[in-house]
Amino acid sequence: MASSPIWASRTKTRGMVLDLIRGARTISRVELVAATGLTAPTISEVVRELMVDGLVVEAGRGASTGGKPPTLVQLNPPARYSVGVQLERNLCVIVIVDLAGRQIARTSFSGVASMPPERGLPLVAGQVNGMLETAAVERHKVLGVGLVSYGPQDRRAGALLTPQPTGEWLGYPVADRLAELLGLPVLLDNDAAAAAIGEYWMGAVDPRSTYGCIYMATGIGGGVVVAGEVYRGSSSNSVEIGHVSVDVNGDECTCGNLGCLENYAGPAALVRQALTTPGLGQRLALDPSGDDFLSEFARLAAAANAGDPAARGLIERSARYLGYAAVTMTTLFDLDTVVLAGPSFAVAGSIYQSVIQEEVDRRTFARQAHPVRVVPSVSGSDAAAIGGAVLVLQSELTLGRGRGPDGGAAPSSAGEAAVGTEV
Amino acid sequence: MASSPIWASRTKTRGMVLDLIRGARTISRVELVAATGLTAPTISEVVRELMVDGLVVEAGRGASTGGKPPTLVQLNPPARYSVGVQLERNLCVIVIVDLAGRQIARTSFSGVASMPPERGLPLVAGQVNGMLETAAVERHKVLGVGLVSYGPQDRRAGALLTPQPTGEWLGYPVADRLAELLGLPVLLDNDAAAAAIGEYWMGAVDPRSTYGCIYMATGIGGGVVVAGEVYRGSSSNSVEIGHVSVDVNGDECTCGNLGCLENYAGPAALVRQALTTPGLGQRLALDPSGDDFLSEFARLAAAANAGDPAARGLIERSARYLGYAAVTMTTLFDLDTVVLAGPSFAVAGSIYQSVIQEEVDRRTFARQAHPVRVVPSVSGSDAAAIGGAVLVLQSELTLGRGRGPDGGAAPSSAGEAAVGTEV
Description:
By secondary structure, the first copy, chain A, is of the alpha/beta class.
C-alpha cells in the first residue's frame, strides 16, 4: 500500500499542514482547520505528531476572537537541516540550511568541476563533513543533500547527461557516489529549478503563484514553479531557456539548436564580445585564453555599473536578449512573476531587471490579463545552492515523500480518518 | 465546507474512479482497488453511485483469476452529452459528443464571427438547439457547452480579451450570453487547450504523459497537458506558441512581440507569400482581397500535396518554422509528444509532421533523456470543437467540480470513509 494514492494522500496531509505552518510563520490550530478544511481532531493529531517529531513548537498565544486566545505553533528551525551543493563549471558552492531555509553555513571554492568526479566528489564530501562539524550540526538531524547542476540530467539515476564540465562526468552516478561518501541521502536536480523553488520556501512569492526563474551563472537556465511545486515535464529536463532559439538564422549551438539565447546573452558570450570590443578587454584586464567566465563577467558588470559605456552597452544588449527570452517564457507558461537568480544577475541586477521588465511589459501576449513582475531572487548569488537544500526539505517534509530523521521509512499515520484529540 | 480541500478530495475520488473506468474501457472493481489504493468497500460504494447516476453500467464478466470471474464495468456513453462550439475567424464548428467523447452530431458554417456577438451568438444557440433536437438528445442529459476560441481570454469572466474577430467581441460576456440563450452552463476556454485535452479523453496518449499540442486554424495556438490536466499558468493564457518570437530581428507583430511564429508560418502569412510568388496565386485562384485564409490555405496545401513545387516549398518553409517553435516548446515544457491539430494541419499533415519531427529530433535540448514523438491529432480538423465538449465532460465529471444532471450542486458523498458494501 505504501505507494498507493491514499497512503500518499495521508502523508500529504501532514506535508500540507507543515507547509501551511512554514508559510504562515505562526498559526493557530483553528486557522489550520479553516485553511485546510480538515476536521479539528485531524489537525490536532497532525500537529501533535509534528511536535513529537520536533518539527513544530508552540509559539505563545494569538489574539482572542471571543474566548480563550488560541495557542500558536511555528516551525522549529533547528529541528532539521539540509545541505545544498551547487556544482558549476567555475565554482562549487555548499550551504547548510535549517528547516526554515536559513543559511547557517556556507563555503565556496573553484576547481572541483574541472576534475573528474572520482577526485572532485571526495573533495566536496570533505567540505560538507567539515562544515557540519564546524557548525555543530548533529548528523541525525540532516535530512540529506541536494546536489544541483546543469541539465540535461537523468534525475532518477542521479547522473548528468552532458560531458560537462569534463567528459568523465557524463553518465557518472554523481548522486549515488556522493551519498556513499557522506552516508546521507543525495538527490540530484537542476540548478535553475532549485533556485526557483527556493523563492517559494523563503516566502518571497504568493503560494498560489505560477512564477518562473531565470538562473544565470556561467550558463543560463530556467525553472517554473506552479503552486509551490517545480514544473517537471516528462523527465525533469524542463525550462532550458538558455537553449531556446532567439534567432533561427543564428549559428548552430553545440546543443544542436539554432541561435540559442546563451550564445547571445550568457556570460561566456559577453566576455568574448568584450574581448573583441576595441580597448575594452585590455581596460578590464580580461584573459583571452581564460575560462573563468564568472569572474571575468563580474569585472565586465562592475565596469558597466561604474558607467563604462562599452561595458554597459554589452550588458544592456544581453539584457535585451534575456528580455526577449523572458517574453517567450511568460507567453508560454503564463507567469505572474519572473525571478532573476544566480551570480551573474547578482553583479548587474539593476540593469537586467529594468530592461527585462520593459520587454515583458511590452511584448507578453496576455499582458492585458495580468501584470508580470520581474524581481531579483531573495537568495541572490547562492540561489541554486540554497534551493538545492530547500528541495531536500520540501521532498522530505512537505511533498509526502517523507522519511524520519533516522533515515528509515517513517510515514505519518495521520490523515482524514484520524479522530479523538481535542483542538 | 463545499470548497474545502477535503470536500474536493471526496468528489475527486469519484472523478478519479470515473476517469479510470473511461481510460480502461472495461475494468473490474478489483482492478479499480488495485489502481487507486482505495479500499474495496469504498470502490464498491463509488461504483454503485456511478451506476445509480447512470454514468456506468455493467459489462459482462472478466477473466477469472481463480475464483468467480469478476464483473466488469464500463462508461455508459449515452448517459450524458456535451456540446463543443469553436468560434474561429472564418468558421464556426459545433459538435455534440457523448460521455465517451464520441461525436454524435456536427455542423459547421461561416460568417458568425464576422458579426457582432449580439447577432452571432443567437445564431449559434439556434444551431445548438436544432442539433440537440435532431439528434434526439434529452436536454437534462446535456452537461453544458464548451465554447472555445483564441486567446487571450478572461476565462473566469467568460470574455475574450482581444478585439477579434470584430471590435464588439472584446470584453463581451460571450459565455454568460450563450448560457442565457441556451439555458445551459457554458464555459469559455482556449481552442488549442481544448484540442490538447481532447487527445487525453480519446485515449490517444499515455495518461501519465506530458504532451503538447500545436493547433493551427487561421492562427497558431498551443496547449500542454500534464497527467490529464491542462497546464493553466496564472490565468489560463498559456502556450501561445503563435506569438513566440522565432526571430528577434523580425517585424513587430500586432501583439507587440517581435518576429512571431504566426507571421512566418501561419495560414494567413502563407497565403500572402503565395500571392507574391510569381504565378502561384493565379494558378491557385487565390483572392488577393479575401480574408478566408482557411479555404485559401487549403488550396495551397492541396497544390503542395499534388506536387506543385512552389506550393510545396512554401508549406515546407512554414513547417520548418513550426519545427523551430516546436523545439522551443519541447525544450521548455519537456514534452514526450507533440500533437498537430486543427484544420490547417489536417490539409497538409504529412509534410508538417515529418519536418517538425526532424527538427525536434535534431534540436530539442533533452533529446538524450527521451524521444519526442510528433503525431497528428485523432480528432483532426474538429479537434478544438470536440475538445471544447471534452473540457465540459472533464470539468463536470472527473475533476471534482461536479454537478448533477439536474444542473444543481449534487456532490458525491462517497470518499475514503465510505464503508459497508461488499465488492
